[in-house]
Amino acid sequence: MNKKELRVKYKALRNSLSADEIEDKSIDIANRLLQLPVWDKIYYHIFLSIAEHNEVDTEPILHMLSGKDKEILVSKSDFETRDMTHFLLTDNTKFKKNDYHIPEPVDGITVPSEKIDVVFVPLLAFDTSGNRVGYGKGFYDKFLSGCRPDAIKVGLSFFEAAETWEDVFDGDVKLDYCVTPLRIYDFN
Length: 188
Known about the structure:
- This is 5-formyltetrahydrofolate cyclo-ligase.
- Belongs to the 5-formyltetrahydrofolate cyclo-ligase family.
- It catalyses: (6S)-5-formyl-5,6,7,8-tetrahydrofolate + ATP = (6R)-5,10-methenyltetrahydrofolate + ADP + phosphate.
- Its EC number is 6.3.3.2.
- InterPro entries: FTHF_cligase (IPR002698), FTHF_cligase-like_sf (IPR024185), NagB/RpiA_transferase-like (IPR037171).
- About 25% of the residues lie in helices and about 25% in strands.
- By secondary structure, it is α/β, with parallel strands linked by helices.
- It has a single domain, classed as NagB/RpiA/CoA transferase-like (Rossmann fold, 3-Layer(aba) Sandwich).
- The strands form three sheets. Strands 3-2-1-6-9-10-11 form a seven-stranded mixed beta sheet, sandwiched between helices. A two-stranded antiparallel sheet has the order 4-5.
- A hairpin with a 5-residue loop joins strand 7 and strand 8.
- The radius of gyration is 15 Å and the shape is globular.
- The model has no long low-confidence stretch (mean pLDDT about 95).
């Protein structure tokens, strides 16, 4: 399979999940995250779920991070440059959905990518080597390549690892971990 075929397959799989399944699997992923050796860090970047795409609901993870007094960062995407601007999540952060239904902060305190310790990465599929398939726009490859080399990249997936695909590129940034409802994949 190639990335295009994987996108079609995993979008269909996600779309077949009920709201209850998404909620249960998202909570299972959040609970499993507690087993990762990442909780001594300070700056955590998290994506805000696109409910219309049946993504992993990151609300339980946001509550965990907040309860652990972590600095939480959320992004706003520039679809012309493929850049992401990272904002510190505060009680005053206001959100607006963009044209792609992504909840984004309206404004706030920006934080450079170099400060980020842990990134929770959205994806459609991943393999047993830590390669990942997203929506194909390149936002996360660009963002992750601008992070420090020791920044920990954690994928979140409803599904287990896929077979390795044909079109893995050198510019693709690999994950350090991927967490599913059933297990943790460690690629270190």
